[in-house]
Design goal:
Number of helices: 4
Largest sheet: 2 strands, antiparallel
């Protein structure tokens, strides 16, 4: 009997990843995000100019937005043999964090083990292939709602 035929098993797996990163060079981060946006949109006055302006403002103003615009869950599993990404959701937010404080690494603050990782009520948007606050990612456009959550 193959793994997919085993009673109670599913061929789908929810992979949860929670990271806290330190932005050590905000200018380098926003610069890279702006370069990525320029590559996606082409010339400033061209098609999608309004979306480009909105996206550029977002990544200039907020490091979390800049980081989120550069993250691609396809990259996490794209080279893993036998795996195809079926759906992805990711978000970013600026937080108060002390790496020396053991209580700051609480993965399940609400005590809800079944909660969807990366989603906090009221903090994000549902986007198919888009980016934070309307920031497109990898050539896919967001729906224009504010927030940092993405769903692919």
């Amino acid at each position: 009997m193959s793994t997919s035929e085993t009673a109670g098993s599913s061929r789908f797996v929810r992979l949860k990843v929670d990271m806290v990163v330190e932005i050590t060079d905000p200018d380098a981060l926003s610069g890279t995000a702006l370069e990525s946006l320029a590559a996606e949109y082409g010339e400033p006055g061209g098609e999608g100019a309004e979306e480009r302006v909105h996206a550029e403002e977002a990544v200039r103003e907020d490091g979390a937005e800049a980081l989120a615009s550069l993250i691609d869950p396809f990259d996490l599993v794209g080279e893993v043999p036998g795996v195809e990404l079926a759906q992805a959701s990711w978000s970013s937010e600026s937080i108060d964090y002390d790496p020396d404080e053991p209580g700051d690494w609480d993965l399940d603050e609400d005590g809800d083990e079944d909660a969807v990782e990366g989603y906090e009520e009221g903090s994000g948007q549902d986007v198919t292939g888009g980016g934070a606050s309307g920031v497109p990612h990898n050539g896919r456009e967001a729906d224009g709602d504010d927030g940092t959550e993405r769903r692919v």
